[in-house]
Amino acid sequence: MNTATIRKPAKQAGVTGNEWEHKYLTLSIEREEYAVSVAKVREIIGVGPITRLPNMAAHIKGVLNLRGSVVPVVDLRLKYGLAGRDYTDRTCIVVLELEGRAGPNLMGVVVDSVNEVVRIPPDRLAPPPAGAERLMNGCVPGVANWGDKVYIVVDIEKALADDAFYADAGF
Amino acid sequence: MEAILKNLSGRLNQAATDLVLLDPDDLQGLVSLMDVAREVADAARREDGLALFVQVAESIDAVLSMLVLFQIEGEAEKQAALKLVGEGITGLQDVLRNGPADAARATGMDAVLDRFVALTGRAVSHADERDAEQALAQLGSLVPPAAAMAAEVAPPPPKAPAPEAALGLALDPSLETSLVDEFVTEATEHLDSIESNLLALEEHPGDTEVINTIFRPFHTIKGVSGFLQLTPINRLAHETENLLDAARSGKLAVSPALVDVVLASVDLISQMVAAVRDLNGKGGGNGPVFAIEPLVARIRRVLAGEETQAPAAPARPEAGPNTAEAAETTQPAQPAREGAHARTTTIKVDTAKLDSLLNMVGELVVAQLQVRQDPIIQRVADQRLQRNLAQLSRITNELQKTAMSTRMVPIRATFQKMVRVVRDLSKKSGKAVELVMNGGDTEIDRNLVEEIYEPLMHMVRNSVDHGIEPPEGRPATGKPPVATITIGAEHKGDAILITIADDGRGLNRDKIRAKAVERGLIGPDEQPAPRELYNLIFQPGFSTADKVTDVSGRGVGMDVVVKTIEKVRGRVELDSTPGKGTTVTIVLPLTLAIIDGMVVRVGPERFIIPTLGIMESFKPEPAHYATVNQRIESLKVRGKLLPLVRVADLFHIDGAVRDPWDGLAVVVESDGRRCCLMVDTLLGKQEVVIKGLGERMQGVRGVAGGAILGDGSIGLILDIGKIYRMAGIDA
Which of the residue ranges A112-121, B59-68, B269-278 would you say has the lowest mean pLDDT? Predict the structure, then answer.
């Protein structure tokens, strides 16, 4: 007897609901491992030329050309108050597809490196340690103990929504 | 009859004179001549035996409309078309003058008519050949020998126009084919969206926004079918709209019967629209008869609340008999539909595809450049390789140019469609209106053209319908009897301004206020500033028109305009002076447009200055440099001191040139003020596509957007107006 495959409607071209459910891309920032939902990730690219945007907060690195599209880039190290670091060939830009008023919004985040894609079922998620909630502005739904690692699950949509992109230089 | 003939003769003489002075590019002239031709045709149609006049006048009208719509290309061709129009007019004049005996003349007219057919590519009128022959024969008895005619020949009473009650679908052959095509395309899209929204309404019967999304397209269909005098469609859409209006304002609950009957109406209108398309393919004429009355009756029953439950089965009973009847008559016409498709020369392309094409072409240009500039490639001293590479680069550049041009079109064509709108409205309302167009060459993104067509039409309609006084009202105000509507387009800074101005009575503040209070938009004691008050009319359901006409006055329109414009990230501004007129300004972003830019370097960074704002650039000399209080810097340019603005300082750029004489001063102008922007050096000129920095980066000050430079990186485009503000010299 043939087994019928059940397909959920695709939310994004080529990605069915089942495929990215509970799947996360893990990335390193200063020896910590963060996990971002794969559904939000468009692609991962190396660091190319970035055009600085004048008078913006330091973590706004600027804009890059992704095959003709202008994509803003945020450095997560700087955003979370860590010391800046020179970009190496391990440094990556994760291009995210965030929700926008007029369709998806592309945004790149600079991370030290990307590691792997893991499936973290909800029952493996523990609430974040006390204090972390406040520190990350409530965008950490939980952490997962994963062998010898701790994955910090980040609601990246929320993490980047509050950004003060406006000029911080006084005018 | 003799009065008619005299009338015709007078009009033809006028047309002949007009024609002498007419230039094929003089749009107003062409249109007014079209008017004359139509009047001649109308007048002749009311009499028996004047079929020849009808035919020739309609042909003249068709040729003129081709000229108006730029369907005739080439100077010689245009002149030839006008010459043919001239021959048609003289021919008719001769027939009138010489009377019927002149058989040679008749054959001459046949030849002229044949040439009209050849040019317009459509059969002459619906009058058949027999008619034309009879016409000439009858003229023998009709045109009396000069002076012999006397009072004894009483003019026959004018025939009443054909009663409208006949609900056969008829398409006026004098309508521009493209106009009808557009209606068909739009209506089909609207009907599709209505259908899917109706299904949503069935699920959420209480959602007024969903009702709005159904109501508005019906309104548009009603309006346009009214213009095109497609009476059955207009009537059915009007009835359905009434029903939806009741539901929208909460007077009627959304019942299964309501959804059902609206669906039936969608079905029937779809069939009628298909019939219109077929008719249009055949050049107009009479189409099949659709039984809309049973459906209208049912709509009224639902409106009266007499019917709330959908009949069990079949799902759409009213549509049943109609479909059967319509199917009979529309079936044979099916093949014609394919014919209509075959002759379309433009296609609608998904803008996402166009965008992606443009992006990929940009990538191709960059990749091609990288290959050519690759050190290894450059070391290869092979002639054939270099020749092939040069060819590749030529092709790529050509491709890029073409791809870019697919996005930009002059706004003229859109403006010209308004000529027709104004013409018809002016006829319908009895108000004499002249349309003046400015800035038709302004290029705008094709995507925007499609978006602004409807808002523009709504605005122009509103101007004629509400803005301009009735003809008897104008003389009292001291204004010329012919009202003027001016539409214009211009680039301004980082925006495109489209203005629609009329010299009518202006907005009635008291009425708007009263309505706003009635609708609870403002408190009874509030006294908003005039501009704020005017902007209230953009609220959904706001209309101060006292009576509901089949064109406007239901308060849809303005909110649709705003919604459409906001969708393309533009905005609508409204200003009005009581008694003087109203000006609506549509401000569209330039983010989609292409500009000419100067690429400059400041320290390690590169920027693009829009060439439009650049007056000149020069290397300053120490003698031209002056400071006030060591801080306010200025440069003397042609004897005038202009403020010096250092881009490096505004944007906090390290490593830029410090002494003005080591750098370059670019004199820019915005809003009539000038200043010198100091940059390190000029890198080149480039045509660039302005791209937005994304909705999260809209607060970047002094930057209008970004553009992909030749090496694939992004250069920021300076916003001169904002730079004035940043530098504090905008006072």
Answer: B59-68
Domain count, chain B: 5
- Name the strands in the sheet holding B483-492, side by side, starting at the edge strand that comes first in the sequence: B433-438, B483-492, B495-502, B581-589, B571-577
Choosing from B122, B142, B162, the residue where a domain stops is: B142
Query: Given CB atoms, is B729 within the 8 Å cutoff of chain A?
Result: no
| Strand-pair category, A149-154 with A142-146 | antiparallel
| Residues whose CB is less than 8 angstroms from the CB of residue B351 and which lie 6 or more positions away in sequence, other chains included | B447
Average pLDDT over residues B212-239: 83
For residue B645, which of B729, B701, B718, B716 has the smallest C-alpha distance? B729
Q: Which residue of A has its CA nearest to B569?
A: A102
- Chain A nearest C-alpha distance from B633 (Å): 18
Same domain, B420 and B564: yes
Which ipTM score applies to this complex? 0.81
- Specify whether B402 is located in the same domain as B424: no
Chain B positions in Cβ-Cβ contact with residue A49 (cut-off 8 Å) = 712-713
Residue written as tokens 């980082």? B494
Co-location of B579 and B629 in the same domain: no
Q: B106 and B13 in one domain?
A: yes
| Contacts of B286 by beta carbon, 8 Å cutoff, 6+ apart | B126, B168, B169, B170
* Predicted local confidence at residue B105, as pLDDT: 55
Q: Do B521 and B665 have their domain in common? A: no
Structural element, H or E, at residue B342: helix B334-342
Mean predicted confidence (pLDDT) in B431-441: 88
Architecture, CATH, for domain A21-161: Beta Barrel (2.40)
Is residue A25 pLDDT above 90, yes or no?
yes
The string of pLDDT tens digits covering residues B357-381 is 877 887 787 678 778 777 788 788 8
Q: Say how far residue B705 (Cα) sits from the centre of its chain.
A: 28
Report the candidate in B366, B356, B371, B351 with the shortest Cα–Cα distance to residue B686: B366
Which residue segment(s) compose the domain that B254 sits in?
176-316
Q: Are residues B402 and B524 in the same domain?
A: no
Say whether both B420 and B530 belong to one domain.
yes
Backbone angles phi, psi at B484, to 5 degrees: -120, 130
On the question of pLDDT at B240 being above 60, the answer is yes
User: Are B706 and A70 within 8 A, CB to CB?
Assistant: yes
The position carrying tokens 């081709």 is B66
In angstroms, the Cα distances linking B375 to B242, B371, B378, B380, B394 are: 73, 9, 5, 9, 20
Would you state the pLDDT for residue B677?
94
Contact between B714 and A63 using a beta-carbon 8 Å cutoff: yes
pTM over 0.80: no
